[in-house]
Specification:
Chain B: Pfam families: BPD_transp_2 (PF02653). Chain B: Keywords: Cell membrane, Membrane, Transmembrane, Transmembrane helix. Chain B: The chain crosses the membrane at residues 21-39, 45-63, 95-115, 122-143, 172-191, 258-283, 331-350. The complex is a heterodimer. Chain A contains 10 helices and 10 strands. By secondary structure, chain A is of the alpha/beta class. In chain A, a hairpin with a 2-residue loop joins β4 and β5 (65-66). Chain A starts with a strand and ends with a helix. Chain B has 2 domains: 18-282, ABC transporter involved in vitamin B12 uptake, BtuC (Orthogonal Bundle), CATH 1.10.3470; 287-381, no CATH class. In chain B, α3 packs across α12 (252-265) and α8 packs antiparallel against α11. Classes of the chains: A alpha/beta, B mainly alpha. Chain A binds chain B through residues 50, 52, 71-77, 81-82, 84, 88-93, 96-97, 100-105, 107, 109, 111, 114-117, 121-122, 124-126, 129-130, 148, 150-151, 164, 168, and chain B through 9-10, 12-13, 186, 189-190, 192-198, 200-201, 203-205, 207-216, 222, 268, 372-373, 375-376, 381.
Chain lengths: 252, 383
């Protein structure tokens, strides 16, 4: 059985088939990229997995558990974290509290304990902070701890979003265009981090990406989509040379 | 300027970041403790109202400032707290019991209001909370067997530890102060733990909050319940302070006053609730002065400028008519809100931070330092 599996996943908006009977599987510990032209349904698949949209039909399995009907907030609790294409950070909070929100799924304290800030809450906060610091070190975010998000440049926000996802200690991470808006150097850093996430942290990565250099450098396998359907699946070079994929991109 | 060198995670957790805070807040507390022996009884009474309004302000701040859910129904929560106290008092229930009962009941009602509010945002939520306030006001007027209808209810003096606590005495003031301080400490505790961060997360991006594992609906209901509960506690004190409550005290205007408290104070910090409460309570004597003395002053000025006695008399009458016109108070509140939103969106506390930073950085202060934070008042942020 695969680690993560989507079976005949569909998302229809009226007559528009954003995602049309897509099936794929992600093996544990691999980096799988989804590519495709704009509007191919890549982000929609992510939104289906993180339950922002309910699927029209089809099922999603994670660790052999059907998660199609789980509420959105439970997806994170199962160990699936995500980033967003258009950065969704908590703008008027500091970097540190943004990252601590990533720890939410691990918090065990109850409301009344928090009101009194009992020693258990204090100990929990320190434990969360320790994990957050590890992620800060991993992604070189030390200079920004106490900065408000609203004052930070785009490139840094992108990394912070990744950091927030990592803080939840996910088993599977969904990266929605991790390199969009980043310059060449930042994209390089991103590709190292993505590989390190796999090799050092043992996280399975599912990502949507347009930058083929990045895709080629990090992916184990690639899926190409167009008009909500799978065109090709396989190693990066296989997919890139698949006639249907070439046709979809070049319009031939 | 002070530089903090953090050596322990504790440095980011503790309530007072450095000794300067301990001294300044300690001094403030000392001043507040000796206040009853120094200030006139009128000012003491105002100070009690400051405490009560600030408590409500902190409650509203949790909901509106930190969770991003606007409410124009907090007068109703205050009323529920006040009426619960007045009702239970008739059966000789001791103060601590009905105090807690009022807070709990209001919290439960707050949670019940929170459920339908889950699907509403922005202006629709405001309308829903207004309707809730009207419903409560109507119930207070009609449910005569419990609330005594429009006749209102008399609230007897508080009995605490076998003694009668006068609503004008220092003990009552200390009680209100203690409730305020405990509320603030509890809220600060909440804000530095997972629940508080979840509130802020919901305010800034519900989608991201959900994908981080936050049960948005549950936390919104929690926020409503906590906010309402705090307001309920304040309601008990409010009832005791006024010693008489009736439905027409808990109108929309009172809810708007609470919004003013946090808006004028600054919606991003608890300091704002206290500063806003001081502003609101102190503006009342100012308005009274305007009403009583302004006509005379203006007429006198007109007379000195050579307007003649008769014309000065006309002017006096005209100004007096204007100053005692119905709804003038509401209009002035409206103007204050507009002026603050336009020119000082960070409120009084924001202004205080700017002044502080000006002196800390002198002569290097840049106006642009606070520029980006202005984004905060963009309408979509209050959605």
């Amino acid at each position: 059985m695969s680690y993560f599996r989507a079976e005949n996943l569909s998302l229809h908006f009226g007559g528009l088939k954003a995602v049309d009977a897509v099936s794929f599987a992600v093996e544990k510990g691999e980096i799988l990229s989804i590519i495709g032209p704009n509007g191919a349904g890549k982000s929609s698949i992510f939104n289906l997995i993180s339950r922002i949209y309910p699927p029209t039909s089809g099922r999603i399995f994670f660790e052999d558990q059907d998660i199609t009907q789980q509420p959105a907030y439970d997806i994170a609790k199962l160990g699936i974290a995500r980033t967003f294409q258009n950065i969704e950070l908590f703008e008027n909070a500091t970097v540190l509290s943004n990252l601590l929100v990533g720890r939410h799924r691990h918090s065990t304290t109850r409301l009344w304990q928090e009101l009194l800030f009992l020693p258990s809450v204090r100990a929990g906060e320190k434990a969360h902070r320790r994990r957050v610091e590890q992620v800060i070190e991993f992604l070189d975010l030390e200079p920004y701890r106490d900065k408000l998000i609203s004052g930070l440049p785009y490139g840094v926000r992108k990394v912070i979003e990744l950091a927030r996802a990592l803080c939840s200690e996910p088993k599977l991470i969904l990266l929605d265009e991790p390199s969009s808006g980043l310059n060449v150097e930042e994209t390089d850093d991103m590709s190292f981090w993505i590989r390190d996430m796999k090799s050092e942290l043992g996280i399975t990565v599912l990502m949507v990406e347009h930058d083929m250099t990045l895709v080629n450098r990090v992916s184990d396998r690639v899926i190409a989509l167009n008009y909500g359907r799978v065109l090709a699946m396989g190693s990066p070079s296989e997919v890139q040379h698949h006639p249907d994929v070439v046709a979809a991109y070049l319009g031939a | 300027m002070r530089f903090l060198f953090k050596t322990d995670y504790e440095d980011d957790i503790r309530l007072f970041p450095h000794s300067g805070y301990v001294y300044s807040y300690g001094l403030l507390l000392a001043v507040l403790l000796i206040a009853p022996y120094v200030l006139s009884s009128y000012l003491m009474s105002q100070l009690v109202f400051v405490c009560i309004y600030a408590t409500v302000g902190v409650g509203l701040m949790i909901l509106t400032g930190f969770t991003g859910q606007a409410s124009l129904g907090h007068a109703a929560f205050l009323a529920i707290g006040a009426y619960t106290a007045a009702y239970l008092q008739q059966f000789n229930v001791p103060f601590p019991v009905y105090f807690l009962a009022a807070g709990l009941l209001t919290g439960v009602v707050g949670a019940l209001v929170g459920f339908p509010a889950l699907r509403l945002q922005g202006i629709y939520l405001v309308i829903a909370t207004i309707s809730f306030a009207f419903i409560v006001e109507e119930i207070m007027a009609r449910w005569e067997s419990v609330t005594n209808g429009n006749e209102g209810m008399r609230v007897k003096a508080m009995q605490l530890l076998g003694t009668t606590v006068s609503r004008d005495g220092p003990t009552f003031y200390y009680l209100c102060l203690a409730v305020l301080v405990l509320t603030i400490v509890g809220t600060l505790n909440l804000l530095r733990s997972p629940t508080g961060r979840a509130f802020v997360a919901i305010r800034d991006s519900e989608t991201a909050a959900r994908s981080m594992g936050i049960n948005v609906a549950l936390y919104k209901v929690k926020s409503f319940a906590i906010s309402a509960g705090i307001t309920g506690f304040a309601g008990v004190l409010f009832a005791h302070k006024l010693s008489f409550i009736s439905p027409e005290m808990f109108t929309l205007q009172l809810s708007i006053e609470f919004i003013i408290v946090i808006l004028i104070g600054g919606t991003f910090s608890l300091h704002g609730a206290v500063l806003g409460a001081i502003f609101l309570v102190m503006i009342d004597p100012f308005l009274t002065y305007l009403k009583d003395d302004m006509p005379g002053v203006i007429a006198g000025a007109a007379a000195t400028l050579g307007a003649g006695t008769e014309r000065a008399g006309h002017i006096q009458d005209a100004v007096a008519a204007f100053a005692s016109a119905n709804g003038l108070k509401g209009a002035i509140y409206g103007v204050i809100i507009v002026v603050f939103v336009l020119f000082e969106p960070l409120g009084l506390y924001g202004r205080w931070l700017k002044i502080k930073l000006f002196f800390q950085l002198f002569p290097l202060y840049k106006r642009a330092t606070f520029k980006r934070q202005k984004i905060y008042v963009k309408s979509e942020r209050n959605r």
